[in-house]
Amino acid sequence: MSKLRIGVIGMGNMGSDHAKKLNKGIVPEAELTAVSEMDGNRLEDAKTYLQGDIGYFATPDELMDSGLCDAVIIATPHYDHPRLAIMAFTKGLHVLCEKPAGVYTKQVREMNEKARESGRIFGMMFNQRTNPMYRKMHELVHSGELGAIKRVNWIITDWYRSQAYYDSGSWRATWAGEGGGVLINQCPHNIDLLQWICGMPAQVRAFCHEGKWHNIEVEDDVTAYMEFPNGATGVFVTTTADLPGTNRLEITLEMGKLVCENNTLTLHKLGQNEREYCFTTKDGFAKPPVEVSVIETQGDNSQHTGVIASFAKAVLDGTPLIADGEEGINSLMLSNAMHLSSWIGDTVALPIDEDLFLEELNKRIAASKHKVTAGI
After folding, report:
1. Residue 376 above 80 pLDDT?
2. pTM for this model (two decimals)
3. How far apart are the C-alpha atoms of 336 and 256, rounded to whole Å?
4. Options 3.40.50.2300, 3.30.830.10, 2.120.10.10, 3.40.50.720; which CATH number does 4-127+302-323 get?
């Protein structure tokens, strides 16, 4: 096999973008051979901007059974991600799944089991892991040279969305259609990076404000407090209503502080481990010297095309994935914990009670209002 034959399932915003890039040959290791879309108008539109010998199918089942694909990219509404991935694995296909892995971890756990049983390659579209700044933060934190993490703060409020965005699809911003708001739609990348760089917290207390700034039934404003197994604490703040927004990730460690903001990674490095210094200095007000430097990062920020290329190479040559599909459950576990904490008004330990989460989610699905919109 010289190229991986890929079918794209779901031709909305992300799916059509992936299909166009593959169709243009931007990923040399892969080729677009089929697409599926249940909306007939969208499927017809795809025929106007995609070129070459491509199969067009009204359902994912038809695409998977066509024999045209070795792998699929799943880019459908969130609830369908695990179901379609499981279907693909049972048919012997490799899977690259858009974020999030699903809406609730119990469903995703089954997907991960099927992936292992199938022996197929399973990747997640966590394209922010290609960003050299986040890769460098991961390297510095995991190397141990800066000591243990003491505090994590991420203010990520540059996800601004207008009411028109939420009105653009009947499934958007509903519990029944999307399964959540900013945590499940915009922030899976940030939450994935948080756990990838810093590890999973042990417990979470969150406040998720539903429809605070928009006419929607799901959360559009979140503040979460986290405690990690080593005693470190963290705060995660996000919204889709701030203008101008902020994107500042700050990690304080025993040997200094990393700050990622405005496309710049800055290291404030102490001359001595703070924990050592605290208990050995004889001066109650003195501080060890601090060297401040901008960290130069290397590598191509290839985003979605980089993840697709990595996925294709994993299938063709066995090279490592940028994000293994089974890791998708980690960020979902964390966002589920934030939702559950807010719903029950209490601190939630991780791993969460998956049955309780699903019970609470189902209450909201049952009360979810159907909306009719003109798709964009």
Report:
1. no
2. 0.96
3. 31
4. 3.40.50.720
